[in-house]
Design brief:
Layout lengths: L9 E5 L4 H12 L3 E5 L13 H12 L3 E5 L6 H15 L4 E4 L14 H29 L2 E6 L2 H4 L6 H21 L4 E9 L3 H4 L6 H13 L6 H8 L10 E5 L2 E4 L17 H12 L9 H4 L6
Helix pairs in contact: 1-2, 1-9, 3-4, 4-6
Length: 306
């Protein structure tokens, strides 16, 4: 393979056997990285194991002249996170980038959602991102460099019905990324998020029980291939992005998006302090013009990606 943007770097991609993770793994390798393709091969709901997807991506990378190794460890435990990163270090001698992409869905409206359905999604997405990131942190500190790329979601950033567990996990990942970016800046370690849009197993699994959901599915399948999300991940793993940290990017077809961070939008003050009644009479009336409406993704990003 010719020298690429991440030549010689060692990149861990969790959930790297299918969909967006597969696309990222393949492009990282095509741009010169040695790749740990981590995937337990579970169903969308996180059930079962199958080493086939990770092995197939490794074979594809090697057939194209690249270098990769499969990891079948689960991200949903501290020991699994340690083992995933150890696979990189034991096989390739170092680790330069972690792409926290592994995820599952347990979609259900909140009033019907069980504690197990909530916890399972949190454990894979949010805790999994922590476990793998934490395992890599000691190596990043020692080598005074490293890049974290966390996969968040428009569900967490904007909102979507039937996904309170997924949204909580994905917005939690934004907070995790920002905390890592602040704490590890002194070690030249950067941490960013990508909110991807793609037609994948996870999107295809969402019930198409309304005309709007069917429209979203048709639009996604037509315009949003997983491969469209890989270039931003490769860029963020590269030295070209050495000064970029703490940001939230979106990839949507041929669009690149920069998301804002939560900031105060309006304030109101009373020198004598507040009572419940004065909040009604004055406070809420002053703040209400800046209330955020109860939007979902398609209210905010309803145009067709082309």
């Amino acid at each position: 393979m010719s020298e690429g943007m991440v030549e010689g770097k060692v990149v861990v991609v969790t959930g790297g056997g299918r969909g967006i993770g597969r696309a990222i793994s393949l492009m990282m390798a095509s741009e010169g990285a040695k790749v740990v393709v981590n995937d337990i091969g579970a169903s969308v709901a996180g059930e079962g194991t199958d080493g086939g997807p990770a092995d197939e991506v490794v074979k594809e990378i090697k057939a194209a002249g690249g270098d990769a190794v499969a990891s079948l460890h689960s991200v949903a435990s501290a020991s699994g996170g340690e083992a995933i990163v150890a696979t990189a270090v034991d096989t390739f001698g170092r680790v330069d980038c972690v792409v926290n992409n592994a995820g599952i869905l347990r979609d259900k409206y909140f009033h019907k959602m069980s504690a197990e359905e909530f916890e399972a999604v949190i454990n894979v997405h949010l805790m999994g991102s922590f476990y793998v990131s934490s395992a890599a942190a000691k190596y990043f500190r020692e080598q005074n460099s490293g890049s974290y790329i966390h996969i968040t979601s428009n569900t967490g950033l904007i909102g979507n019905p039937g996904q309170a567990n997924y949204g909580a996990a994905k917005l939690g990942i934004v907070g995790l990324s920002k905390g890592i970016a602040i704490d590890m800046a002194r070690y030249n370690v950067r941490s960013n998020c990508i909110s991807p849009s793609a037609w994948s197993r996870m999107v295809a699994n969402i019930p198409l029980d309304t005309p709007e959901r069917r429209r979203i599915a048709e639009m996604s399948e037509k315009f949003l291939s997983p491969e469209k999300n890989a270039p931003m991940a490769v860029f963020l793993a590269s030295d070209a992005a050495k000064d970029i940290t703490g940001q939230i990017f979106g990839t949507r077809g041929n669009e690149l998006i920069l998301f804002g961070h939560t900031r105060p939008v309006r304030s109101v003050h009373r020198s004598e302090g507040w009572t419940p009644q004065s909040i009604i009479d004055h406070g809420i009336k002053a703040l209400q013009p800046s209330f955020v409406p109860l939007d979902v993704i398609m209210d905010v990003m309803g145009w067709e990606p082309v």
